[in-house]
Amino acid sequence: MKIIISGAYTIGSYLARLLSRNKQDIVLMDECSENLEKISNEADLLTMEGSTTSIKNLKEAGAEDADLFIAVTPDESKNIAACVLAHQLGTKKTVARVDNPEYVEPSNQELFHQMGVSSIIYPELLAAKDIINGLKMSWVRQRWDVHDGALVMLGIKLRESCEILDRPLKEISGPDDPYHVVAIKHNDETIIPGGNDTLQLYDLAYFMTTKQYIPYVRKIVGKEHYVDVQNVIFMGGGKTAARAVRMLPEYMHAKIIEQDPTRCEELNNILDEDTLVINGDGRDIGLLQEEGIRNTQAFVSLTSNAETNILACLTAKRMGVRKTVAAVENFDYVGTAESLDIGTIINKKAVAASHIYQMMLDANVENIRFLMSVNADVAEFVPSPDAKITRKVVRELNLPRGVTIGGLVRNGEGMLVSGNTQIEAGDSVVVFCYNVDMKKVEKLFM
Fold it and tell me: Strand runs (DSSP E) across 117-188, as ranges?
């Protein structure tokens, strides 16, 4: 697959490294040679210095026969213009990163399609949605809804109160049980589990269930004593924080601690008067105490510095906050954050990459999510008529190693999948993949 990436910044560079590992034909374009020098030594790809709003440069990069053009520079106008030009030159699909939330509204998508922009991504909005999903359920690390919650995936850290530890999964999660364990992070190892595997203390386990059985899962993992989030303190008042505060449910109340006085004024102008904006340092224990940290159920640190966010969350935990969320854009710190039991980790690069990765597949894919904690992908495929996956029951499909099917949605109803399940064309099928080329999985659904 031939892919052109415009912008060797954080998201573009991350995508280039990720896709080059999958042996894709990558050209990374940027107007700054310094941005290109480092990555050219780290990844198997071509780099090109030039402007992606130049027709000549686009032709030299191969836009006339490219499969995918990804524009992720900091300039949204350039990104949109570059996608329009690439499309007119012959590129099959285009993706533009934007900073204007108006552009991602469903009512405006057809306009961009007509212009030649196949998909719009707003990383701050995607990250804010992940934050809100985590805050709505204080006892989970990660939540992912399929078809408005017909199926639900829950990432849960297992503590001493969990009542299903140390027992083979075939005893606690059979065909008649209302949940499946689809992935486990044990120490540094990711496991796509079989019937003989067990859940261990401090594992991060991913459960697939249906909405009505969420309380049951909460009970068996011993999280009923976790209080629901009502008060949230955000440290760092950037775009992601502002977007997340606007999306908070009505029953949640937020405070934002921001060091920059000018940004504080801006936040006061764009946010509801119910949101208290405080000029200060969220690592200041005296300030946290003054602002009621001990009566706060969640602390979200979204500064541009990963170390600051990790330390701030550790401080909040020591002061009794149960739910903490940290923005960790530097992947070198993700493992550190997990080992320190920080809680939910937000990475805009990974969120954006998941959305873009979906564009690479030819099968009907509703959604893809990269799960950083287990280094795995979860995808929602819709099989076409006479697809290979519809020809046999699940136990006879001989799925690739590292692949498991968590559940499916049929006619709006979620159901878990067992070995005797017959998948049908039109189902939305949730597939977990670990160390597997997604293109191999895709062939099962075409």
Answer: 119-121, 142-146, 151-157, 179-186
